[in-house]
Amino acid sequence: MTRILGADALSCFQVYDPETLRSMRRAKWALEGERYGAAIAEMDFVPAAPISSAIIGAVQSGDIGYHYPKALDAASEALKFWLENRYAWTVDSADVVPVGGVLRALEACLLFFMSSKKPVIVPTPAYSPFLSVPRALGLQVVESPMNSHEGRWTLDLTDIDRAFARGAGLLILCNPHNPTGTVFSRGELLALAELVESHGGRVFSDEIHAPLAYSESIDGRPMPPHIPYATVSAAATAHALTGISITKGWNVGGIHCAHLIVSERDRPAAKRLYTMLAHSASTPGLWATAAAYNHGETWLNEMLAYLNLNRVLLADLVEEYLPGVNFHVPDASYLAWLDFRGTWWADRPALHAKKRARVATIEGTDFGSVGTGFLRLNFATPRPVLRQIFEELGAAFSPATQAASGPIGIRNS
Question: Residue 50's closest CA among 257, 256, 291, 287?
């Protein structure tokens, strides 16, 4: 374990060293043939002390059985406190339902809070379960390709309007957006809310990456803050359902705890379904959630300072080692959406990264057809590891390997 002590005098944030990462065999580093894990959306950082203490305390006291009102209320009240202080969003207790994860929140939305089996709109590129989960539940999915201008991705409101007009009932919004890192502005969200309301539609807003929005650009300019979709207007408040969790912001993806925030119209259903939905949340996860929202802000801020320096380095590494690859520095999170479309390697860049560089990334096509020619790379890792990853990628994608690449890396005509 390596303690980070930089110019900012970080006091509680720590990263793992590379050998520790490989020996842990966590999902991100449980690799088959690869040497570097940069695919799964986990961070290579030591958990926040308040969260570790909460989980260890639960285990030591034997509090690892079924959930109970005190644990449920502690997590929900901590979430309400966080939303009020972070976003000036006041949420009624009747609108907060604990669940086992944001995908469980999405499933509940589709199964119990939609009045019909109307098609679901998914702006793409999109986190792949947003495409697969509705289909698994028997719903038609309408992909709505997003627009990209100078690397920043935005919703195509004209296309979304058309999809609602043709009978869609709900749009799945990822805010901030995975994989592109876009933090949508108030104006963008307000325009979407007006459009959705005009069709009598609904929005499920996944805000799992919300704690990871950066306050400044890499050149020091202020960045627009993350805005919860449900807060932009009365219409949005009325038709939104929000999934939120500490799992991305505090790097605890295995705790099985999140919250579904419903609208006032959903309160009767939420009350009826509360016990069933809350059953999927774990007791240690509830205590970890309370600890993160109540005591985890210092760790979060220090972690974001570290990630911000990674963003700066990443921009330089792409330019140095991957000429011809386009990259827009994300507004939020730790996922780089790398554009190989103008290179020899446009067909399947993630496959080439795995075969030639032994770096695990995710193929852009996993996020929908619009992702062809892209790969997603996780940069939430110690900076020496990040540099090593790009040294390997640079060698793998160099002109010297182009002629010997065989069928991998054949350029699209």
Answer: 291
Query: Quick one: pLDDT at residue 24?
Result: 79
Q: What is the dihedral of CA 200, 157, 231, 141, to 10 degrees?
A: 60
245 three-class SS: coil
Q: Which residues contact 203 (CB under 8 A, 6 or more apart)?
A: 170, 171, 172, 173, 192, 193, 196, 229, 236, 239, 240, 241
Q: What is the dihedral of CA 370, 216, 248, 244, to 10 degrees?
A: -90
- Contact yes or no for 261/91 (Cβ under 8 A): yes
> Could you tell me the residue range of the domain that residue 359 belongs to?
2-48+298-401
Q: How confident is the model at residue 404 (pLDDT cuts 50, 70, 90)?
A: low
Displacement of CA 224 from its chain's centroid (Å): 18
Q: What is the CATH number of the domain that holds 329?
A: 3.90.1150.10
Distance CA 91, CA 111 (A): 23
Distance CA 98, CA 102 (A): 10
**CATH number (domain holding residue 72):** 3.40.640.10
Residue 408 confidence (pLDDT) above 70: no
For residue 189, which of 162, 152, 227 has the smallest C-alpha distance? 227
pLDDT at 333 over 90: yes
User: Angle formed by the axes of helices 383-396 and 297-321, to 10°?
Assistant: 20
Q: How confident is the model at residue 132 (pLDDT cuts 50, 70, 90)?
A: very high
Peptide bond into 222 cis (omega under 30): no
Torsion of CA 150, 317, 298, 101, to 10 degrees: 70
